[in-house]
Amino acid sequence: MSRVGSQPITIPSGVDVSINGADxxxxxxxxxxxxxxxxxxxxxxxxxxxxxxxxxDSRESRALHGLSRTLVDNMIIGxxxxxxxxxxxxxxxxxxxxxxxxxxxxxxxYSHPVSIKAPEGxxxxxxxxxxxxxxxxxxxxxxxxxxxxxKWRKPEPYKGKGIxxxxxxxxxxxxxxxx
Length: 179
What we know:
The protein is α+β, with helices and mostly antiparallel strands. The chain folds into two domains: about 10-80, Outer Surface Protein A, domain 3 (Alpha-Beta Complex), CATH 3.90.930; about 85-165, Ribosomal protein L6 (Outer Surface Protein A, domain 3). Helices cover about 20% and strands about 35% of the residues. It contains two helices and 13 strands. It has helices at about 60-80, 140-150, and strands at about 10, 15-20, 25-30, 30-35, 40-45, 50-55, 85-90, 95-100, 105, 115, 120-125, 130-135, 160-165. The strands form four sheets. A four-stranded antiparallel β-sheet has the order 11-12-7-13, with helices on one face. A three-stranded antiparallel β-sheet has the order 1-6-5. The chain has a three-stranded antiparallel β-sheet with strand order 2-3-4, with helices on one face. The longest helix is centred in the middle third of the chain and has 22 residues, at about 60-80. The termini are far apart. About 20% of the residues are buried.
């Protein structure tokens, strides 16, 4: 039995889960998320507990069992609490400017500012010019948007300039040795 897949998911108050065949819909204070469970994986609702079950012990079913349970759990956490990724900008002249909650302008050393538009369900915050906070209810989408922003100027190993996740360690290299 899958250690992750066999764990029940507790549904907090204020979150409504509805199951229609292989489709699961989760509604909460922050929004609504929907997902279709992959081949043969089923969900069973007992009062305030959700169980994810697999049809057999084949390799594929075992792999999808834990994955499906984690995806549904992330949906429940997303509609009740939400997810956030914090990015830090390091470098002289590198800065971010918020254009409302759904757009950013980044000055990253290019000849032009980099404009980034948030997909639906994602919000940007810029508390200071060198910090970006990406928030939303879909964990995968929040992580992908943060990775796309980071991709514009990855941290380089010599001076450490670039965009990095808050708390990310960047391995530094020694520069050229002087004669």
